[in-house]
Amino acid sequence: MTLELQSLSLSLGGRRLFAPLSFTVRDGEIVTVMGASGSGKSSLLDFLCGMLDRNFTTEGRVLLDGADLAPLPPERRRVGILFQDDLLFPHLSVGENLAFGLPPDLRNRSARRAEVARALVDAGLEGFESRDPATLSGGQRARVALLRTLLAQPRALLLDEPFAKLDVGLRDRIRSFVFTHARAKGLPTLLVTHDPDDARAAAGPVVALASLSDGNPAGSGEPGSS
Ligand SMILES: Nc1ncnc2c1ncn2[C@@H]1O[C@H](COP(=O)(O)OP(=O)(O)OP(=O)(O)O)[C@@H](O)[C@H]1O
């Protein structure tokens, strides 16, 4: 799977956020997107997964595995996203939260249970099915949130500062957990972060978004080296 941005620009309310972006994210590759606050990083990810809810227009194209993404409704894009405040449903158990991520075509109950159990073992959370999310640590919650995203079998992964609120020690562990899974599944991954350590760990190209609203039109839109 590859994610390809071709001269993509995004305007909100008629105002263009950043200079046109052209780059390709290959399977298992993590491209880091950095830029000033307000330069449009989150809006870019929201657009890619079909969740941008503001009045926007775009130019250029986004191809996922060679096919134009724009005409697809969010549920058919199969682009997974993970946020800084990834909330688990508080009224559901950990297992039910994870089952929520499973593709609807996996109807068989025991197959669903087995998938959830396998994912939990994989994350070092064996037997956590019936736990209340409120009883989990921040790191455990972060892992469950990633598992839920991955169980939906995304074709690409978008990470919107998912480590920003974690304590430093935990951040390294969760980051490596997320990156290892993204690479193992061969997902093209876009990481939005302000943290240079994240970019270093991603070990891929870095794209700098320059905010046009700051009167700085110099966004290269091309990946540089990390
Ligand atoms: N809810 C909103 N309604 C209208 N405009 C918004 C809204 N949220 C953001 N914007 C506008 O969209 C622009 C891009 O915001 P976005 O959140 O994508 O930037 P960002 O680069 O992710 O910023 P940050 O690093 O602070 O998270 C902002 O400059 C702001 O003007």
Relative helix content = 25-40%
Order of helices and strands: EEEEHEEHEHHHEHEHE
Oligomer: single chain
> For the report, how would you describe the main beta sheet?
5 strands, antiparallel
What small molecules does the structure contain? adenosine-5'-triphosphate
Average of per-residue pLDDT values: 89
Q: How many helices in DSSP terms?
A: 7
**According to CATH, what is the topology of the domain at 3-88 and 156-214?**
Rossmann fold
What overall form do the CA principal axes indicate?
Answer: globular
Radius of gyration: 18 Å
Distance between the termini: 22 Å
Number of strands: 10
Q: What class do helices, strands and sheet pairing give?
A: alpha/beta
CATH level-1 class of the domain at 3-88 and 156-214: Alpha Beta
Strand content: 15-25%
Quickly give the CATH architecture of the domain at 3-88 and 156-214.
3-Layer(aba) Sandwich
Could you name the ranges where pLDDT drops below 50 across 5 or more consecutive residues? Answer: 214-220
CATH superfamily membership of the domain at 3-88 and 156-214, which one? P-loop containing nucleotide triphosphate hydrolases
